[in-house]
Every structure is written in C-alpha cells, then in structure tokens.
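Researcher: We're teaching a course module on how sequence relates to structure. For the next exercise, students receive a sequence and then see the predicted structure as tokens, so they can try to spot secondary structure elements on their own. Here is the exercise chain.
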Amino acid sequence: MAVRVIPVDPFDLVIFGGTGDLARRKILPGLYLRFLSGQMTADSRIIGAARADLTEEAFRQSVRESIAEFVPKPKQDEAVISAFLGQIGYVTIDAKGEGGWPALKAMMRPGMVRAFYFSVAPALFGDIAERLHLHGVADGESRIVVEKPFGRDLASARALNEVLAQHFKESQIYRIDHYLGKETVQNLMAVRFANILFEPIWKAEYIDHVQITVAETVDVAGRGAYYDKSGAMRDMVQNHMMQLLCLIAMEPPYHFDPNAVRDEKLKVIRALDAVKPEDIVRGQYRATIDKGGDSYAVHSENPETRTESYIALKVNISNWRWKGTPFYLRTGKKLRARSSEIAITFREPPHSIFDDHTGWRENVLVIRLQPNEGMEMMVMIKEPGPGGMRLTQVPLDMSFADALGSEANDVPDAYERLIMDVIRGNQTLFMRGDEVEAAWAWADPIIQGWEARGDRPQLYDAGSSGPEDALMLMHRDGRRWRDIR
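Model: And here is the predicted structure for the students to work with:
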C-alpha cells in the first residue's frame, strides 16, 4: 500500500519563535521531511522570525543542526538538505515594537499562500496579530497557527479569542493540537464512519465503558516552574484528552467537512456532566530510593506545591447515545511506561450458551496512539485442543508497521500533517473558538472545586501506575484499569 503524496500550493510560511525549542524539534524538521517527500514545492519559502540578531546564514546553519539531530539518519540527504536550506529566510523581529516588520513585509510574495505560525508565548499573540495587519504583512486570506496553551481558564481563552478576532476571521485561525494529527486518531474516524461493522454498536446499549490513557515516563525537570502553573488537567485533559473523547463520542457529521466535524465535537463537550469530587483522583510523583531521580516538588522548585502531575476522572455524557456508559480518563508523568491508548470495552452477551463461563472476558477494541500505532480487537475463541469447549481471549492485531510494511515509515508526523493542512486551508483537525471555550467551561469548575477545598494530590511512586485511589475509582464500579505497558 503506497502512501500518496499530493503537493500543496506554493506558500510563504513565517515561524514566529523560529529559534525556539518547538521550531527546532518539530516544525523545521517536519517541513524538511515534507520537502523530501515532494509535498512542499521548490518555490515555497520558510521564514524564521525571532528576537535573536542572526544573519540568514546563521539561521540556516541552526536549521541544518536541527535536521541532523531530529531527522532519522536514513532520511538525511545532503543534496535535499542544501536545496531545502535555500528556501529558508530569516528576519529579526520585535513582537511588541516596530523593528523588523517592514523587512518581513518586503519578503512576502504576491500570489502565494501566506501562513504565520505563532510558536511563541500566548502573551504575544495579540501583539503579533495586530502588527501583521498594521504593517500589511497579512492579507484577507492569510492563515495563523496558534499553539497551546490557549488560555488557562475560560476567561483567558475568551480574551485570546477576542484579540485574534479583532484581526483575523475564524476561518483564518488554526488552533493546533498535535494529537489530532496522529494517524491513529484520524483512523478512529475512519473505523467508526467507514465501516458498518462498528457504528450500529457504538452506543451505551453495547459499550460498557471507555478508557482513555495517556501515560508518560518523563518528569517535568527543566520546565517544572512552567508546569506548576498548569498541571495535568490544564496541560492534557482540557485539550488533548478532550479531543480524543469527542472523536469517540460524537455523532456522525453530515459530511467530512471542518465545521460539520467540529459542530458534532462541540455537542459532546456541551453534553458532559459536571464531575463529582469523588470521581476525581489527583496525584503527584515522589522520588523512590531504588529508581533514583527527584520528586515533582523538587522539579517544580516549590516544596508546598499542590499541582497534580497525574489525574484520573470518571466522566459521563448526558445524551441518548452514551447515557449510562462512563468514560474513564487518566494521564500522568513519571509512570511505568510510555503509552497512549483508547480502549472501548463492550458489554457481556445477554446470555451465554456455554457451561463453563469462567474463561469469558469482554470484547475490547484498543486504539494505540503510541508507541506502535495501530488497533487491536480482543475476541473470544475456543481454546485449541480436546477436552470440551474452553474459551480463551486472543487479539486480532493490526499495527501500521505490519499492515503497511516499509510504507509505515513514510507516514507523516502529526506536525507535518497539520502544517500541510494549514497550507491547504483545511481546518478539520483544528479546534474552533467556541469548542475551546466550551472545554474550559467544563474544566473550570473542576479546577475551582479542588482549589476551594484545598485538596492536595496523593503521592505516588515514580515508575508506578499512579496513585492507589485511581485504582479504587474503577474498582468501586466493578471495573479495572488496563495495565500501563
């Protein structure tokens, strides 16, 4: 199965914060890979814009170094790298002043798609948006890409939306969530809506519960001061995990169209019940003698911190499709394995015809986001051999590496795909302003509740599966978490 590459129209892409960590690790290496594949045409240009006083040659050298560090060696072709660097420009810019803006305007070419990537702190969004129009750098068809965090609560998200709306239409604003660019996440929509097999049973009548897990082995060392102002709820649940929940729970849109898809996601968010305090477990990793490393409190440089590095929630959706089927969400730092997955557990058959029911287990559809992207369906079969009808559970496994072979290596990274969608003008995988605000309207009372109660996160050992109370969250419902592995 060949991966088709369809070139995009020629473009001018300006990366504000072009010398920053995100540009160095993801954006610029991703653009190189799109150039290598032939999707980015030879007449497109990439312009770095930042405070650093660099020459274009110095910036190109830094791009070369980021390619050398973050692009797999087999894909580092010197001739292609040299050609790619020939399309790179740079301008020293003052986001809050007037320096560099006339030079940036002079670099814009007529007839090209114009896109501006705001890889900067949200506090600079308004200043950059204002100056793009004040100096005539952007036009009525330009697109802006806005990185998270998009606010830290409903009030700040609304303020950001209002600032951007002063200068750009909603159709020009691309609020990026890299989780939506993952191949498996998009395949979730294909599995649901392109196969009659699943859609008739994709509802509370047949589904017992859904688990969404995003487990990380990394700690917050080096960015603890930043993370301590957000925590797992703001950093992961309100955006990434909310998007995954919406894709699982939404109704079929009338068409695979950006606003049709986002309309259905918005309906899910608005149907979410308020989460009860007893349905929330917050945790914070602590150091362990045998595994070494420091605690979250040390990494955050705040001995009195009450910020969670782990959170688990039981979420209910009040609509006809999902009433009575809980969604269990959990995410955390410094856990035993790096694993992101969605597990849909189906209900028991209404009647078993087999005398020996002891070996029976639920059917589970598992969508693995990382590592080893793919899908797995756990089904019951007869255990091989004589001795009667004994049941055993086996997986029907489809990993992209197995299904696509060498083509799996050519599947674009999330940032590669999403940036190309910006150039195409396709907003399907980007959040709309009202969607962001609805998510914060749901999350704010949860956060305000534990802050008002003065709740402290439960400590858990680094390298474990999280706090003990998270296990009880499931056990009291007669269920259990899937192993993190």
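Model: If you want an answer key for the exercise: The two ends are 30 Å apart (CA to CA). The domain at 11-147 is CATH 3.40.50.720 (Rossmann fold).
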